[in-house]
Amino acid sequence: MASCSGGERPEQQSAESEFQKQLQMQLIKAKPGDVITIPEGVHAINRGLSLNVSGVTLRGLGMDKSILSFKDQVQGAEGLLVNASDFRIEDLAIEDTAGDALKINEGRNIVIRRVRTEWTNGPDEENGAYGIYPVQAENVLLEDSVAIGASDAGLYVGQSRNVVVRNNRVEFNVAGIEIENTMHADVYGNVARNNTGGILVFNMPDLPNPGHSTRVFGNEVVGNNTANFGAEGTPVASVPAGSGIVINSNDRVEIFDNVITDNDTANIIISSYFATGYQGTRDMADDYDPYPETIYVYGNTLSGGGSSPDGFDLKALKVAKFGLTGSFPDVLWDGYVNTDKVDDNGSLLPEYAICVDNDTAEVLNVDLGNGSENIVIGDEQHRCTHEKLPAVILAAPLF
Amino acid sequence: MLLLAAAVAACGKPPPVVVHPADAPPERLSEWGVVLADGGDLAFNGGVIPYDLNMPLFSDYALKLRSVWLPAGTTARYREDREFEFPVGTILSKTFHYERAGERNGVPLDVIRADRESVLDDGGHLDLDRYVLIETRLLVRYDDGWQALPYVWNETQDEAFLELAGDVRSIRLNDGSAQEQFVYVVPDVNQCGGCHKPDHTAAEMRPLGPRAWQLNREYRYAGVTRNQLGHWTASGVLAAVPESPSEGVRWAAPGDGSTGQRARAYLDANCAHCHNANGPADTSGLDLAIGAAVDRRFGVCKPPVAVGRGSGDRPYDIYPGRPDDSILVYRMAHSDPAIAMPELGRSTVHREGVELIRHWIAGLPGDC
Fold first, then answer.
1. Amino acid A90: pLDDT
2. ipTM here
3. Can you give the residue range of the structural domain that contains B134?
4. What pTM did the predictor assign?
């Protein structure tokens, strides 16, 4: 003892559970290879948790058994923030966080499996933004998980590379699944139901990485008609309720073999950044491409949908063009094109075309750039195909 | 002072500063021998130099007393654009305290809301009848990098204990006319890295404050005022200070610097540990570092990305001339963890900081 002080250790005055302290200590002292087990039960946590050590697994006994509840969270923008690679999280739930439920910032080799993130009060603008949110991650497998009630996106993959999102269920989020500024993502076997928008593939400006090459296939995207409850100013706040699959400003996107039904604005929406209304009057970043290009839609089962679009403009447009009882076609396109990439007719050059080779599905060009003056259906320029994208192959150790 | 003198008399001279091994941090802060407190006074051990910053990070109106100690015979080296290069064995300390406004161990603890610097008396002491110590954080430089250690003070104010998992404390701020109760959060060790790893890819812990523009200012050493860089150099703990070291504006001196200079320095100290080109918040594309150009990447007319509820229905991070339409102001003015920025280290709103940024944005020219 090097000190003359005879101080006493203070009593803990906090209301934090022993479990919380213990879990924090396990996360702080974790070593690569550790498996941290979350026992059965509802565990109240009131501060954000974080993990900074690579090679750690967090594992519960089931997404309805091992529950971390952040109902009374006083601190932390996430429930669990992971700044590490070679991370696995399985068989547990994260509920009612103030901000995001699970954020993984800049890691490689990430497995998220049978995890549920939920705001248990249902859709509410006061809910946290993202359920499961890997960002600037590489080699990500997100499967068999459930996301409910996020005020932004249930499953949100941002600025990442080499990603597989499969066999998840997303309900009552503003965006069910959002793939943003991500390169090489496969999104398949998911069920997106009762969100504002089912599955979104977006590119946003002013970010380090633009995204491209996403395949969305074999999903059920049904009845995503929940009123938009996202805060204005967020990218998803511009998504009309009743959107099935939305491509915004992204390139090389393939949508095939999905069942897309009863999304009241449109089953598929293809739009540019200009449609969001966020660009203002200043120039965009030089390296940002606001146009959706090289889009290929085929083999989907499309039905219902387009009967009751969200928002005054779209409603008026629908009634004017298709009557009170009519419906929009399956695919809505805002009609913006990069004029450096068009032919003499103003159509996108073949390599950049928006190709819809999907049975009887029609494309409605709503000509947003000209105040919807020249709305046309089924333009010849969409009758085309593109070379198919290769499957995403997760690298070792995730393959 | 009397109590400390008594303790020193009873035990003799305070034992020297000890650098404990990285894998065996002591439970008691006193075992480092840096910060000495006996319930009546706080003082620093011999060779420990107190310092202050021009532009501090806001931390719920806590007063912050900082110190640096270097092993005998070693020196830190001046660097222009990042923290000084400190030798192995360096111990930095930061003691969070408040001026008391009520009974000694009340729950909540009543303290005075004061947006000011911590001040030692001319004997180099902090009177613990007047001030209450909450926590002391150490940053210790080892061979393989810096380690952060949070210590929480006891009620008798004679010892602080290591709390790797952090802690919370109920505090009530009093400003004469109104009270504001909040939960003061001592971060856990992982959260220390939330700010102290400003390069998220390199992920190395670093001190944030001891940079040239932050330290280039006057400090009152036992009644004698000197420039800190000069004092460090004269004390032999700092080398290679150029003739004209970087300058900063001092938060506690309201007339120091233009609104723009003050705003830039404030945003750097409060935001840029995450919002820099390589920081954990580079995912947002927002760079608030003091050297960055005030353009779109700085938030001017920049729409948000993964902002969630943090947008507050506002379209841009910084909307020139329109602070009420600027997300920066909205997030600074909130304490809800889903909205508040910075994300860590703040449960209350820094009114004076919000006022500065509002004022600055209101005066920015142009439109979006």
1. 98
2. 0.91
3. 2-224
4. 0.94
